[in-house]
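Q: Sequence in, structure out?
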Amino acid sequence: MRVNLNIDPAVFNEIYLKYQLHNNNRYQIYFGGSSSGKSFSLAQRAVLDVLNGKRNYLVVRNVQSTIKRSCLNEITKAINAFNLRDYFDINKTDMIITCNINQKQILFCGLDDVEKVKSITPIDGVITDIWVEEATECEYKDIKQLDKRLRGRSEVIKRLTLSFNPILKDHWLFTEYFGIWEDDKQYVEKDNVSILKTTYKDNRFLTPDDIAALENETDKYYYEVYTLGNWGTLGAVIFKNWRVEDFSDIEKTFDSYRHGVDWGFAEDPFAYIKPHYDKTRKRLYICDEIEAIGLLNSESAPMVKEKAGRDKVICDSAEPKSVSEYKSLGVNAKAAKKGPGSIEYGIKFLQGLEIIIHPRCKAFRAEINKYKYKEDKNGNVLPVPVDKDNHLIDALRYAMEDDMRQSSIKFLK
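A: Exactly. Output:
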């Protein structure tokens, strides 16, 4: 039996029609603000995929009791909107939707019943698609287990789809998947991973009062996350003045670089950073980095020299012997002129700049994302940075030392 559908494109939001409906990347991320239409668009895709007879879906949330009133209802609404109710059996008790034409299914389960997830099997073929709604609720290990469920013979590419509001940047989802993300883009894809960011502005089906409620949000964190769809940051984070952007097209015009080194070997890594500073625009471009454990000076020096050439490299003065050894190895190394208050003043200087990080500098992005002030036992933020996982940031302070001295910010004597 065949069903010929003539679907008006107007029933879709345009951005999902473009980037989602026929997306075959193995890992698909749909994130952004509230009321952006991402969940309903994924429900639409699931219905059409199952009707096509080539895919079986497993739809999950962290807690099973939340599925009926969210994912299952969204997919039921999509079936009704397409006028396809006669072609689907919707069993809300067992939470199974079956296409009567081809016996392909949409199965639902919560991650709070792990054994049940492991045993779920469609009546025809294998699970080809797993959609995790509100993925920020889930743990890393659970998503990895779900990924392993996508196995067996299939005539289509298997897909793991994650949808969520972005909450905080220290979430494992950000670390695991957003290495390819660029803040000036709405859609990126690389190495079988795609990421689409949407907000309420991408959902043309919202009412004026829906839009007003989002635009009039007064809480800064909720406005950033749920209105603008940005990854959130809370009070103790030191740097909020940064973004990731591929500036390769203008990088060839950079005529000068700064270079900084923070020593390390065993538990603390060796760190080198290469920024370009646009003084006029107070814009700092993070262009290159090295971060590695277990490097001898004789091993790291050639790597630094390759990136810095004859430029001056400002190094942590805590190891004079290493600075001297670098000089003997052909690096134009200078010891940083640290002093009382230099960390605080360095942070203040960097906070006054627009910091743009090239996507290749993943280690620096990871550091700046979680570099925080200390908090007391009552949760009050103290004006002292946590001295942890900050090696590239320290190297950056050294690299920018001369610029700080020339600015209005002065080191204490």
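The longest strand covers residues 283-292.
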